[in-house]
Amino acid sequence: MTTVIDQTQQIYNSDYTIKGQLVDSHTRCVHYHSQLDIIALRFKCCPNTFYPCFKCHDELNNHSIDKFHVGDHDKVVICGDCFTQLTADEYLKSGSICPSCQGRFNPGCSLHYKLYFEF
Fold first, then answer.
1. Residue 74 included in any domain
2. Fewer CB within 10 A of the terminal residue: the chain, N end or C end?
3. In 3-state terms, the chain is what percent helix, strand and coil (to 5)?
4. Closest by CA position to 80, among listed 42, 52, 58, 113
5. Spatial separation of the C-alpha atoms in residues 104 and 19, rounded to whole Å
6. What total number of domains does the chain contain?
7. Is residue 1 domain-resident?
8. For the purposes of burial, counting CB atoms within 10 Å of the CB of 56, is it exposed (0-12), middle (13-18) or buried (19 or more)?
9. Residue 107 CB: number of other CB atoms within 10 A?
10. Residue 87: in which H helix or E strand, if any?
C-alpha cells in the first residue's frame, strides 16, 4: 500500500520513495502540476527514489543526474495514478497513456526526454 508521508516532500512505499516538492499524491510537483503531470522518474544516481521532475531532483541533491539508458530494463518511470512502474522504453512507447490504468501522461514531457534518459 502506498502511503503519503508529507505531500510537500515524499510518498513512501516499501518498494520505493517518491521525493520532491509534491502538491498531491499523484506525483505532481510545484514545477509541473497540470492534470496530466502524473509521472515520477528514477535515476541511476538515486536508485531507490523517484522524482516528479529534474528540478525536484536538483533541489534535493548536490549531484548531477546520472540517467538510465533507454535500452536498460530497469523500471525508471512510475505512474502517479496507479503506481505501475515502467522501463524507459515502455514509457516512450506508451503514447502518453499508462498501459496499466490508461491514465494520461503529459505529452509535453517529451521536451525533457534528454534530461531524463540516455539515448
1. yes
2. N
3. 20, 35, 50
4. 52
5. 21
6. 1
7. no
8. buried
9. 11
10. strand 85-87
Q: Is residue 65 part of a domain?
A: yes
Residue type, 104: R
Q: How many CB atoms lie within 10 A of CB 5?
A: 13
Distance, CA of 21 to CA of 10 (rounded, Å): 8
Range of the domain at 99: 8-116
**What is the distance between the alpha carbons of residues 64 and 111, in angstroms, rounded to a whole number?**
19
Residue 81: inside a domain: yes
